[in-house]
Design a protein that fits this description.
Elements: H1 7-12, H2 17-24, H3 30-40, E1 49-52, E2 56-61, H4 63-70, H5 75-84, E3 87-92, H6 97-105, E4 110-118, E5 121-128, H7 134-144, E6 147-151
Parallel strand pairs: 2-3, 5-6
Antiparallel strand pairs: 1-2, 4-5
Helix pairs in contact: 6-7
């Protein structure tokens, strides 16, 4: 996996002619440049794509790159989150559907998973402890297909 900009530009934060051309053509964004630069300084090798919501950034990467982006004890992703001023979810393309859903839903936690019978067949019902932001909710529904999301705050 690689960054959407060349390695030299990722390390320096300054764009070469080729990367400037990519930016002009709309192939890369200012956010691609910023994220690439921050991750390159932490030893990450790249990512596959970004999904940008107002309050949350989702980074899709290979398994190896996801581990690098998260960093030891989540330190790299926490620093990136602080610098960008929003929550970040890192998702590995090799994870199974439920791992991806749980990552997208963070900081909400899935407390229960049920299969509900409907006239059209079975439907997946996922119960979370906190509301999930709209952007992540859209991606979860896109990935899981016919899914019902319910929020049940945890009470002791």
């Amino acid at each position: 996996m690689a960054f959407p900009i060349c390695d030299e530009c990722a390390k320096s934060g300054l764009l070469c002619k080729g990367c400037v051309e990519k930016a002009r053509d709309g192939e890369i964004t200012e956010l691609d440049v910023l994220v690439s630069n921050l991750l390159a300084h932490h030893g990450a090798k790249g990512y596959e794509s970004l999904v940008d919501f107002e309050t949350k950034l989702i980074i899709f990467a290979s398994d190896e790159d996801a581990t690098e982006i998260i960093g030891p004890g989540g330190k790299t992703v926490a620093e990136l989150s602080k610098k960008l001023g929003r929550k970040i979810a890192v998702v590995s393309k090799s994870w199974d559907k439920m791992q991806i859903i749980q990552s997208l839903a963070r900081p909400s936690k899935m407390v229960k998973e049920n299969k509900v019978s409907t006239p059209k067949g079975e439907r997946l019902k996922l119960i979370f402890d906190k509301p999930i932001d709209e952007g992540s909710l859209e991606l979860i529904k896109e990935m899981a297909g016919d899914v019902e999301i319910e929020i049940q705050p945890y009470h002791r």
